[in-house]
Amino acid sequence: MKARTGSRPARQSRRTAERVGFIGAGRVGSAMAWHCRRLGFPIAGITDKDPKQAWVAYGLLKLPHERLKASELVRGCDVLFLTVPDRHVEPEFRAIRRWLRPGAIVAHCSGVLGTGQFKGAAERGIETLAIHPINSFSSHAQAIASLPGTFFALEGSRAGMRFGRKLARLLGGGCAEVKGEDRPLYHAMCVFTSNFQNGLLDSAELLAGRLGITRRRAARMLAPLMKTVSGNLVKYGPVASLTGPVRRGDETTVARHLVALGRRAPELVPLYRELSLRLVDIARRQGVEPAGLRRVKRVLAPPRDGRKRKTRGRGRQ
Question: Quick one: three-class SS letters along 38-62?
Answer without folding.
Answer: HCCCCEEEEECCCHHHHHHHHHHHC
